[in-house]
Amino acid sequence: MENILHFVIGIFGNAFALFLFLAPLITFKRIIKKRSTEEFSGIPYVMTMLNCLLSAWYGMPFVSPNNLLVSTINGTGAAIESVYVLIFLIFASKKEKGKILGLLTLILSVFAVVAFVSLFALHGKHRKLFCGIAATVFSIVMYGSPLTIIRLVIKTKSVEFMPFFLSLFVFLCGTSWFVFGLLGKDPFVAVSLCIFLSIFKYVM
């Protein structure tokens, strides 16, 4: 029964995660239409891409057994986020483009190092521990990355550049995976949401 519930919660987590990944479509439709990124930040999309890559890697059977649902949705998410980042780079200003390209280079380097070290230098529980810590750290960064525009929201007294649905589905997605992690007794899947909720509560 517990295994069935674990699987069902994982399906819900996949659904909410897919909505999370698709939530920015409205934003990017506006960017394409206006041919400008305006005051939107590209940082959350780059950090989400890294989180997806690391989480997909962590969910692979040779790293973490029984977490295939984590791997499939995050692999999908990485592909979707890469499209967002590409669109952002096309329409961003020269200064913003340079910043996002630098960040993109950094996150791809981080993923390459994590994958290489875990694949060739670590085995068994040590591999899972290393990949789990990396995925958890950058999950926290992903959940906190929308906070980079809080200052703009306060300054303009408008939430125009902090899309509501993006924030909503980050919350729903994180909550689902928190429960999934608890049921599966996997602290690496569950712990990042605890810290995110603390950040969310503090900001709000």
Automatic annotation (TrEMBL):
UniProt keywords, alphabetically: Cell membrane, Membrane, Repeat, Sugar transport, Transmembrane, Transmembrane helix, Transport
Q: Which GO terms describe its cellular component?
A: plasma membrane
Record GO terms (molecular function): sugar transmembrane transporter activity
Q: Which InterPro entries match?
A: SWEET (IPR047664), SWEET_rpt (IPR004316)
> How does this protein sit in the membrane?
Multi-pass membrane protein
Q: Name one GO biological process term.
A: protein homooligomerization
Where it sits in the cell: the answer is: Cell membrane
Q: Name one Pfam family in it.
A: MtN3_slv
Can you tell me where the transmembrane regions are? Answer: 6-28, 40-60, 72-93, 100-121, 133-154, 161-180
Disulfide bond listed as a keyword: no
UniProt similarity note: Belongs to the SWEET sugar transporter family.
Name this protein carries in UniProt: Bidirectional sugar transporter SWEET1-like
Q: Which organism is it from?
A: Olea europaea subsp. europaea
